Request: fold
Amino acid sequence: MAESERSDVVRIADDDVDPTFDRELRELLAACFTKPGDEIFRTRRYYAQPPSWRWSIRFEDRLVAHVAAHDLAIRFGIRPRLRTLRVLGIAEVCVAPGSRGVGLVPEMLGVAHAFGVERGFDLAMLFGREAIYGSSGYHATSGRVNVIEADGTAAVRRDALLRPLASGVPEGDVILDGPAF
Ligand SMILES: CC(C)(COP(=O)(O)OP(=O)(O)OC[C@H]1O[C@@H](n2cnc3c(N)ncnc32)[C@H](O)[C@@H]1OP(=O)(O)O)[C@@H](O)C(=O)NCCC(=O)NCCS
Reply:
């Protein structure tokens, strides 16, 4: 990808997404996420809850890469000593098929992390594979990651990855009031 033909990583608040960008986002998300349930992206630009911010890259004015982030309060620690940290919850990471394999994911995440540090976020968290996110500083925690749904049901997630921002990753468990992002 020639550098002159592509944009920098651009941040936008989800509240500022206009109808044209909304359509571009839905098209990119629907092209990248294809498992059962992902059809939701054809009509909505988020999976469960709208994120606070989005970062994206354009190539020849076409949207080719995207990362969303939620502003979350999540409990960490060893019970009963839990503390609430502010977490940048990374979601909907995707790169258009023709633009993959050139490092757009770490580039977008690097910009999102700098923003997270500047805004005082303690940690970043996502659900995904260390093969993709390890080089961006995300690693599994040795504690249990419990997602508590609004109806009180709890599930343990084994695909959660954490990255330090303004703080280190605490010892112990993670308790996330769902839905997972
Ligand atoms: C996952 C996805 C975003 C990767 O895009 P990409 O442009 O290939 O990623 P990058 O070139 O920035 O690579 C980032 C890292 O991921 C690794 N990676 C990318 N695809 C991978 C795969 N299928 N399996 C294992 N590792 C992979 C790269 O080797 C690179 O690792 P490194 O930094 O240690 O060298 C893209 O394939 C996609 O949009 N998939 C569909 C949506 C999706 O599954 N999103 C992830 C949700 S958690």
In short: The first strand starts at residue 10 and ends at 13. The radius of gyration is 16 Å. The pocket of coenzyme A is lined by residues 32-33, 93-95, 100-106, 128, 131-132, 135 (CB under 6 Å). The CA atoms of residues 149 and 178 lie 5 Å apart.
